[in-house]
Specification:
The complex is a heterodimer of chains A (154) and B (78). Chain A is an all-alpha fold. Helix content of chain A is 80%, strand content 0%. By secondary structure, chain B is α+β, with helices and mostly antiparallel strands. The chains are: A mainly alpha (154), B alpha+beta (78).
Chain lengths: 154, 78
């Protein structure tokens, strides 16, 4: 099925964001693991796998629309040096991703590609959930202090 | 934060380099190899560099490669 080129471009942009997030979350997860923060490792590792599943959905959709999914393009990774910074940078990445997905949803809507729109809306829902978790962690650190916070993540 | 992952260069290292006299992207490339491998960090490294120079209340010299050739701008501290 021949897809609309504007939609394909928007989907590829979302794919690039996904591929970038997979790597950033994965590295952060394993850095947490290396430092012994197993709770954070598990949570962020799962977020990375979830991003991979989203990427898979987007790739399959692009192929169905007779486009070429660009798996070569990768954005800059924002890797922190300590736990607080890492969570803050993940939060930043996540909010930017959400903005891209929303833009892509409007594009799909405008081009009447309702199936792509539906797929992106479902992805967006999971993104918002993860962003909410990240927001909570950042505010927890501010209220109980980084030492108390990290004690809970062992 | 790691500005350049290829060479493992952090924003703090760049700020320290500015304190020791680094003023251009070329200085950073020579000292750390920033932007010499995949090039993805160039934009971010430039921001960190300019912020650090700006924090010293100095004039920032910006050389931006553009399709029309090199673009040279001086931004004074305000």
């Amino acid at each position: 099925m021949r897809g609309n080129s504007t939609v394909l471009a928007a989907l590829n942009k979302v794919l690039t964001r996904k591929l970038t997030a997979i790597n950033q979350y994965f590295l952060h997860a394993r850095m947490f693991k290396n430092w012994g923060f197993n709770e954070l490792n598990e949570r962020i590792y799962k977020a990375s796998i979830k991003e991979m599943k989203h990427a898979d959905e987007v790739i399959e959709r692009i192929l169905l629309l007779d486009g070429l999914p660009n798996l070569q393009e990768l954005g800059k990774l924002y890797i922190g040096e300590e736990p607080k910074e890492m969570l803050r940078l993940d939060d930043k990445l996540q909010s930017e991703d959400i903005r891209y997905i929303r833009d892509a949803i409007s594009t799909c809507e405008a081009e009447k590609d309702f199936v792509s729109r539906h797929m992106l809306a479902e992805i967006l829902e999971q993104q918002e959930e993860h962003q909410d978790w990240l927001d909570t962690q950042c505010s927890l650190i501010d209220t109980i202090g980084i030492e108390n916070y990290l004690q809970r993540q062992l | 934060m790691y500005v350049c992952l290829c060479k493992g260069v952090t924003d703090k290292q760049i700020q320290r380099a500015v304190d020791q006299g680094a003023r251009t992207m070329r200085d950073l490339r020579q000292e750390f190899g920033v932007g010499s491998q995949c090039g993805k960090c160039t934009c971010c490294a430039r921001d960190v560099l300019h912020d650090a120079i700006h924090a010293r209340k100095e004039v920032v010299h910006i050389h931006v490669p553009s399709p029309q050739g090199q673009l040279d701008v001086d931004i004074a501290y305000s």
